[in-house]
Every structure is written in C-alpha cells, then in structure tokens.
Design a protein that fits this description.
Two copies of one chain form a homodimer. In chain A, helix 5 runs parallel beside helix 9. The first copy, chain A, has 14 helices and eight strands. By secondary structure, the first copy, chain A, is α/β, with parallel strands linked by helices. Chain A is globular and about 50 Å long. Chains A and B meet through strand 3, strand 4 and helix 4 of A and strand 3, strand 4 and helix 4 of B.
C-alpha cells in the first residue's frame, strides 16, 4: 500500500498500516549527545567531531523553525551532505504532524520547547561509565509517553545522537547479541573495526564481557550506552501499552528492542520499525538479521529515492551517506499514511529538493 | 448545564460548554517561582515563605505520582490547609485527562517530565527586574501550544506560582488597570496594603508609574511580573489560534488577558476563564470587575463545595483559604464536561475527600 517497502514480517507490517492510515500520529524526537561521538572516525553527524554537540539541537531547531539557531546553516557530514532532518521537517510540514522533543542529556541546548530528562550528555563509553541515572530518565520518559498516548492515535519516535551506532553496538554486545559488523553507520565506509575497538575498551574499563548483561539493559546502558536509549525506551514503554508506536531509525532501534524485550516483552506487540530504503539496502549492516535475533518486529521502509534529486548533496544519500536519522524514514511513512497516499514519494522528493534549495539560498524554509 | 456557574457573560460561556462537552482536552500546568513570594505575609502557598520554592514542583509531582517527591507530605498553608492540586489530581484521574507541565523558571526542579523554558526563578519585584528573557519564554511556549493544539480538542491551562497575585497586581497597575484591592489572595485576610507597597517599591526601582506600560506587556512582566506569565501567555497564543482554551485560575488570569489583549486581541475570542466558586464569591477581590476592565471574557466557575467534606482541612476552603490554583477550577469543569456530566460535583467531592484521607494516611494516592 502506498509503495511502502515491507522489509521484514510483511503481514504484521500491513496490519499496522491498515490500522493507522488516516489516523493522527504525534512525532517525538529524542535527542542527546555522547562524548563517544568525538572519537575521530566514529561519526559523520557533524563537519568535525567537536561539532557533533550541535547536531541534535540544530536538527530539532530545523524542525521547529525551518532553520537552525545554534549553528549557521544546517548540520552536514564532513563532505557537506545535509542532515536527514530535512526529510523529517518536510514530511512533518506537509502532513501537519505535531512534534515534541525530549532530551536524554545534551551539552548544547536547543532554542525550542523541549523536555529535558537529564542535564548531562553521555560520557565516552571507553570510560565504562556512559550514562548516569538511567532508570530515572527512563521512568520520566515513560510518564510523558503515557500522556502523549492519551491524545494521539499512534506515536512515531525518532532520534538524533551522533555516535549512536557505536553505543548501540556496546549495548547489544553487552547483552549478548551477535552485532559485530551488522551495525549501520552514517559513513559509506562503515568503521566496524574502530567501533568494536571502542566498545572493547569500554568493556575492559567496566569489567564486563560479551553477554554479561543479558538480563540487565539498565546496567548495559549505564556502562556502554548513551542517554538517548533510556529516554527513547521509556517513551515506548509508556505509550505502547495504549497505542501503536512506530520506532523510527536504523540499526540503533535494535538496542531499543533489546531493552524493551527484557523490561516488558509484551509491549513489543505494539511496536513497528519505520526506516529508510537506504538502511535496508545497506551492504555494510544488517538490520533484519539483528532484529531477527532479538524479536520479530516488522520493518517498514520509506521508499525515498534521491537519485533524481536536483542536488548532489541529496543524491549522495544513494551512495550510502547518512541513510537515516531524526526519524526521517518513520516520519516520511507517517506523512504518507496520514494523508492516505495523497502525499506521495514524488511529492516528498520535490518538496525536499525545494526545501534544500531554500536552506542553501536563504538559510530558511518558510 | 451540569450545575456549572456562569459568573460572567453567560451566553458565551454556554456556547463554549456546548462546543467542548464530550471532547478531549489536555491540561497544561505552568509552574514557576518568584523571590517575591518570600516577602513575609505575601503568600500562603507554603508553610513558611522559604518553602514556597517547593510548592510548584510538589504540586505537579502530586499530579503525576499521587504523591510529592521533593517534599514529604503535600504543600500546605501555614495553617495546614492543603494545596488545591488535590482537586486537580482527583479530577484528572477521574476523567483520564492527560497532563503536561511547563516551567517558566524554578529554583527546585520537579521529578517529572517537564518543559523548562528558562532556568532561573523570578526575582523579587521590589528590584524592578523581575524576569529575564520574557520574549524568549513566550515564543518557546507558543510553539509548544501550537503543537498541543494539533492533537487536542481544547486546552485547559493552569498555574502554580506562590506570590503570583502580587506580581499580577504589578503588571496590571503597570498597564494602567484599576486593580488595587481587587486581586485575590490565598489568605482569607487579603494583605492588599502590603501588596501595593511591594508593587510601589518595584515601580520606584524600575522608574515607572501607573499605566506607564499600557502598550508594553513584555516590559511590564520583565520589570514587575513573574516567569509564569510569559509561559502561560505564550501557550495561549499558540493554541487559541486553532482551539478553544480554558484559562484556569483566579484574578491572575486577568494579567494574562491584559497581555494577550495587547499582543493579539483577536485570540481572546477563543479564551474562557475557568475558576472556582470560592473565587467568584470572594468579598476581598473582584474577578468580574477586573475582567470587565480588560476584555469581555466569559467566566465559568466550578460548583465545588467543601462544606460537607469530612475533613476540616478541606472545609477551610469555605472560609476563604486557598480558593484556587494548579488549575483546580478549570480542571474540575473539564472533567465534568469530558464525562458529559457522568462525573458530578458530588462524585468529585467524595473522591477528593477520599484522596485527602489517603494522602494524610499513607502519603500516596494509588
């Protein structure tokens, strides 16, 4: 339906689509930063490693204002490829989906209204002390999720955290999943070896080994995770009791599933992954294989294709740069579902092209 | 309808009730603190003046958890009379209305998910420098209001800020309204003279006089207002473009109306005051007379009557203590409207009595 790609468990995916089409979602973007992102070569979510602190706040400012406030221009990779928040912003505006922002811990605060669940960014996981107060963040997020579920038909939850695939690898390995060389990257050349080395350093400092925290996701996040994870998981725990939740992201979503599976497995019945075609076609990662290890959650991918974009910055997505983030895939799917197909992939691409032009030209989308 | 009291402009009030009955509201509680509350004799919203810092966070914790976390017990006046948050909590639970919390600036942070629009509490208005970044707080609150309006049928907005009637007097006098001896108080003996003296000291320090800021509410709030005001006004500005807003409070709501009237008068068509019988029957204040000076906004009052309560702490409301706060009147009205009268004043009273007992006994409402 609507040219969606059912990448895993088609039947359950179609059931979700049937249930929510024409309904009213809310989008929640969970942001956080981790010092892990500053390890050279780990993240492309910022022109330089030090700039990754600004990427999540700039991303959500773009969603609210059509321009960033804490930086000039918009977040880009070292090669100048733009943030997927352009996709998210365009889809939200086209379909008039409301947006709420939750922070698990940031260094730089966005100039928007947001729910701050903790004050500090995550530490470099090589310290083996990645996140403080994980349970408190999770419990507060849960309360917000419960309240949002009361006034929406379903939730779309996305994330923006540079370095998030490395912390994801940390949590999945700590919980005993075979995740090496399966986690995605914002770079076309996925630095698998570097990520494993970083995680192993964290394990050594924390005094844990592969699979040691199979039953303790809270501790896994505390030691080698990031502050996005408890905020994101808490939201799903609160909302999915009552309403379907489309968790919007790439392989990082598998860490969320692993956390949820241990804390409240029955909630997973109400959870679907929404991602992009670039993720499911990526040769350097394996979302399906990872999900399959944890729980049989359906995967739906947005059929976004930038090969006919007018702009090289967007065409680069077809070569495996960026791929996903800021809930881009899930929000694109939700915009099409909300409009019952009146918004098409073609319309989305045209509008994304247009907005990219405006951001380069005037620095703002009206 | 439903035994509501139409205290001012019955026709418009009835129209609002007809429009929203059976519909789904969200409740937003705007909290903040001001050093003004610590002037001895100004506020009864706390056992001692220094404890007023804890009252707003404790109030919203009560709404989320059925108990307070930042204090033991619940907020009380110096005589031990309980916070009106008991009414709000009871009505929210009975009618399953979702709650969101926005802070304009606090000293003590509540242990709940909330949107913090600024980091600092308000200063003592005798300094003539009451609130920093008023416009920024207002603009961020507006964005949150816009997003909430997209997913709810109407908003109920309440407040908790000790000392708020004094800052209200400050803003109304700065804007040229005849407000002396008309503003309410949480104490039965309204300290009108003290409040005027405090405002006059602020005026002197700020170098302004009565009516000097008739056209500049932003400056009036900056000099002699409080941080609740821009957060509250911004929410209404964002939401009332699209959906009706029940502003829930006593005479403080008149400062909000005065701000809105200057910034965006047409928005007022979509605004109604929801308050308590204790406010409209108060001999020591004049809500109707104040509203009448600013704009013809209808007033609907909750017909709560504690004279038959089993508890002296609640009966005291009948003698003019507390009267209103934490959106108690508006949320009571909304709970009755949402249930189309299935929830009655009698049911509310019984449940409030029961919850008060639990809070005294076990310290928690399940």
């Amino acid at each position: 339906m609507y040219g969606l790609i059912y990448a895993y468990r088609r039947g359950k995916g179609e059931k979700f689509v049937k249930e929510v089409k024409g309904k009213k979602p809310v989008f929640v973007c969970v942001i956080a930063t981790t010092e892990t992102a500053k390890i050279p070569g780990i993240s492309a979510a910022g022109r330089y490693p030090e700039l990754t602190d600004y990427t999540p706040p700039a991303d959500v400012e773009l969603l609210f204002y059509g321009k960033c406030k804490c930086i000039s221009g918009i977040p880009v990779t070292p090669e100048g490829i733009p943030t997927p928040a352009i996709i998210t912003m365009t889809a939200l505006k086209l379909s008039n989906i409301p947006v709420f922002v939750v922070s698990g811990g940031l260094k730089i605060k966005p100039k928007i209204p947001f729910i701050g669940l903790a004050d500090k960014p995550g530490m470099d996981i090589r310290t083996g002390k990645a996140v403080e107060n994980v349970e408190e963040i999770l419990n507060k997020a849960k309360l917000f999720g419960e309240n949002l579920a009361k006034i929406s038909d379903y939730l779309v939850v996305g994330e923006s955290i540079p370095g998030g695939t490395t912390t994801c690898l940390g949590v999945l390995l700590a919980m005993g999943y075979d995740a090496k060389r399966k986690i995605s990257s914002s770079m076309p050349e996925n630095p698998h070896n570097l990520k494993v080395k970083v995680v192993e350093e964290g394990f050594k400092k924390a005094g844990i080994s592969f699979g040691a925290l199979k039953e303790d996701p809270i501790k896994a996040v505390s030691l080698v995770g990031d502050p996005m994870m408890p905020a994101f998981s808490g939201l799903v725990l609160g909302a999915a009791k009552e309403k379907p939740v489309l968790i919007a992201g790439g392989t990082q979503m598998v860490a969320i599933l692993a956390i949820l599976k241990t804390l409240k497995p029955d909630i997973l019945e109400n959870v679907v992954i929404g991602t992009t075609r670039w993720i499911i076609q990526d040769k350097n990662s394996d979302l399906k294989g990872l999900v399959d290890q944890v729980t049989k959650t359906p995967i739906i991918a947005a059929n976004l294709n930038f090969s006919k974009s007018k702009h090289d910055g967007l065409k680069a997505y077809e070569y495996g740069v960026v791929k996903e983030g800021v809930g881009a895939g899930g929000v694109a799917i939700a915009s099409i579902l909300k409009s019952k197909g009146k918004i098409t992939w073609k319309i989305l691409l045209e509008k994304i092209d247009e907005n990219y032009e405006k951001l380069i030209g005037m620095g703002k989308v009206e």
